[in-house]
AraC-like DNA-binding protein (Paenibacillus rhizosphaerae), 299 residues
Amino acid sequence: MDRQQLLQALSPYVRRAWHHKVDRMKLAPRIIFDYELLYVEQGELDIRIAGDLLTVSPGDLLLFKPGIEHEFVRSRGACWMPHIHFDALFYEDYEEVPINFKLRAECNPQELLWLRPDWLGSVLEIPHLIRVQNHAEIHQELMRLIHAYERRDAEFPLLQKSLVLDILYLVIKGLKAAGHDRLSLHQGAMERAVTHIMEHYDTVIRLEDLSKTACLSLYHFSRIFKQTYDVSPHQFQIRYRMERAKELMMYSRLSLSAIAEQVGYSSIYAFSKAFKSACGISPKKYMSTHASMGASEIH
């Protein structure tokens, strides 16, 4: 499974969520079958994960992964640790899997079948120790999840998915920004540039004008934009044009020629070529498949 496939497949299930507060924290070596995400709210901990000794402080997050041995060696000061156990994907046996406190060698064959693949580490490259600037946002969402878990109702399965996905999104964005210091520094500049593209998507937008909007040099603007959105400014504009064209095809009575002109193309040929390249289907085919009742004939 590649990155995009995994992002589409994520369907979290929260096994347990609680705000753990203790005066002293120590836990013998063990493995777990699922994931555990822990936020250090207060106190300092020495934790061994896969043989590496880590010292963690308030603001740090830890992602304990399936099958990886870990141990809470010692703590300093009272420890407040909101955390959750969860599956990243849907599994038929989700209700059977317990929270484990044994070593791998102590688990029986049935228990070892409960071990989940580490998709978050192997594909999304989320490390064991997470140090990000947006940790307060993650903490806030984690507390929302714990609050909802303690009061869970019949609709909680929907809420838990949205909150865990939001937490994972914040973690991934935080790690991305941590790997590129300029991303967080220039977040406002990127927002201004994207807003400009969305407001003028149907016109020719020069890269020089966007860099001026962002108050950055052409080189740094192009580089930071690509790191932030994973596409170039031109590709972002094309993608936005195509989404707008799809909306018009589904919900308006405009012909394809009129739609092409409205999203910034001088000819239906240029629009059709761009749409097919971006969406993998011709606009005529898309319109005939998705057009709402009452839409105009295709011209």
The chain has three domains: 3-179, 182-230, 235-290. The domain at 3-179 is CATH 2.60.120.280 (Jelly Rolls).
